[in-house]
Amino acid sequence: MMPAHNEGEHLEAALLAVRRAADALRRIRPEIAVSVIVVLDSCTDESAGIAARWVAADRRFSALEVRFQSAGASREAGIRAAGIGAPRRRPPGERRTPPPWPGRTWLANTDADSRVPENWLVRQVEFAEAGADAVLGSVEPDPAGMDPELLRRWRERHPFEEDHPHVYGANFGVRASAYLAAGGFPKLAAHEDRSLVQSLRSRAFTVTATDSMRVLTSGRTQSRAPHGFGAYLRSLGRHRHSAAAE
């Protein structure tokens, strides 16, 4: 699942990385079907055209256009479009297919400004088969074009380790049955991932945090979500400048 709001600059690289991860899983576990849904939320740039080219070239990819301006609502809409939860309204004449079985369906989430590693889906399947109901991967800001001092400060506060305490929508997987039981993604502009993980933990689902499938994400400080990852990086920069002034 990949929500996108005006991510034309990053979307091509993000989709290429997801395709590599899907190909890696197919080589190792060809019996596992993979589908990739790009949720285009209120896009006014070239994102829809980029997604359309991928949909035409690879049957595993599909795109959904919505107007929520909300990461949580976009993710939830994409998951419903995949047949999980409330059924979507089908156009007249469209063939009805059986919905996927939630207990055997895994929902892997990333962002359109991020690049997943090749082992991204392989590792999530391994954790799922070992009993995890959700997997929290780690992320690293892309150093390209990023203030080196800001990157250093971020790394100080976010050491790469197993059992880390962080939640990133750019690197998050959950079993569909657990997702439904926890109420799904809330329709929030930001922190929908944290809210869902809190709900999962409150219901005693097994949540595993790992650095074994690290995602590279944009290091921009002008975020699409008002309180998202970019906003957090911007606050780190402000904190640095205020500390220097003192």
How much of the sequence is in beta strands?
A: 15-25%
Task: Could you tell me the CATH topology label.
Answer: Spore Coat Polysaccharide Biosynthesis Protein SpsA, Chain A
**What low-confidence regions span 5 or more consecutive residues with pLDDT below 50?**
240-246
* Strand segment count: 10
Alpha-beta classification: alpha/beta
Average pLDDT confidence is 88
Shape assignment: globular
Major sheet: arrangement of strands: 4-8-6-9
Distance between the termini: 44 Å
Rg is 18 Å
Q: What is the string of helix and strand elements?
A: EHEHEHEEHEEHEHHEEH
CATH homologous superfamily designation: Spore Coat Polysaccharide Biosynthesis Protein SpsA, Chain A
The tally of domains stands at: 1
Second rung of CATH, namely the architecture = Alpha-Beta Complex
Biggest sheet, in brief? 4 strands, mixed
Helicity, in percent? 25-40%
CATH class: Alpha Beta
SS summary, helix count: 8
